[in-house]
């Protein structure tokens, strides 16, 4: 809340995030399926392309001019600045898809204030789709800020009637929750591995009822959090703590959340 009792508006920050996404889209699309795309391997054995690096550098350069007092956390660069306001960037979420020519990838841009995500844009230009939200103003999807439509989570009441999207199975098998993950898959009406950002945006749109992954970094989650929440859902870590911190992520329509958290609890050991 503002000091005068009125809610804080993040409209200007959201508009800036859209401008950042516009610039990011121009860079990522110009390099997508490019024959001279350079791909390196990071120490964690995940790929990084020259498009990842160029996109994050461009976003950071604009923020340095437009929000010089704000901190920045990104996947490809070192943290800069300090204070209550922090931009969290994933220049290309779904780099493995990107480098193989699969169009399911996105730039994630989120703003956190006092560790709460208050505004974000998720832009997937190869899908012709963008999602955004700011605290207290709802969640939207469309091609541009001026052509957005409100989105809302589903009203599914039972896990047995739910559609569950996830990423890979491998991470679950080493998470200490593998058997319970398999059990949850079996208990749901439908399961699909849409993966990465898309699983969570489908939850926000009401096309999928729950999504979960066992191992994610802050830059993978921050931008997703506020969109799911403003669409009426809930976003937590695997243990049910709200927000993009903690281990992994679970997003649901809210109604299903406690049941999913319980279902994905660490496997019991003899």
From TrEMBL:
Keyword Oxidoreductase belongs to the record: no
InterPro entries listed in its UniProt record: Inositol_monoP_metal-BS, Inositol_monophosphatase-like
Pfam family, one: Inositol_P
Domain of life: Bacteria
Keywords of the record: Hydrolase, Magnesium, Metal-binding
Protein name as catalogued: Inositol monophosphatase family protein
The organism of origin for this protein: Luteococcus peritonei
């Amino acid at each position: 809340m503002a000091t005068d009792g009125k809610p804080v508006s993040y409209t200007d920050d959201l508009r800036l995030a859209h401008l950042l996404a516009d610039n990011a889209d121009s860079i990522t699309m110009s390099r997508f399926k490019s024959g001279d795309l350079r791909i390196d391997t990071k120490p964690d054995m995940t790929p990084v392309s020259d498009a990842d690096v160029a996109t994050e550098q461009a976003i950071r350069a604009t923020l340095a001019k437009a929000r010089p007092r704000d901190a920045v956390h990104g996947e490809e660069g070192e943290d800069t600045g300090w204070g209550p306001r922090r931009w969290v960037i994933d220049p290309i979420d779904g780099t493995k898809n990107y480098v193989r020519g699969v169009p399911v990838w996105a730039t994630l841009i989120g703003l956190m204030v006092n560790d709460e995500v208050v505004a974000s844009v998720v832009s997937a230009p190869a899908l012709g789709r963008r999602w955004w939200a700011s605290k207290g103003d709802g969640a939207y999807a469309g091609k541009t800020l001026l052509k957005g439509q409100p989105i809302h989570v589903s009203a599914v009441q039972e896990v047995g009637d739910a559609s569950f999207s996830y990423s890979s199975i491998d991470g679950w098998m080493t998470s200490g929750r593998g058997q319970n993950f398999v059990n949850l898959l079996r208990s749901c009406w439908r399961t699909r591995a849409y993966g990465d950002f898309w699983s969570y945006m489908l939850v926000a749109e009401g096309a999928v009822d729950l999504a979960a992954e066992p191992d994610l970094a802050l830059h993978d989650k921050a931008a997703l959090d506020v969109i799911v929440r403003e669409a009426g859902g809930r976003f937590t870590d695997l243990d049910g703590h709200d927000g993009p911190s903690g281990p992994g992520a679970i997003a649901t329509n809210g109604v299903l959340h406690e049941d999913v958290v319980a279902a994905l609890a660490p496997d019991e050991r003899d």
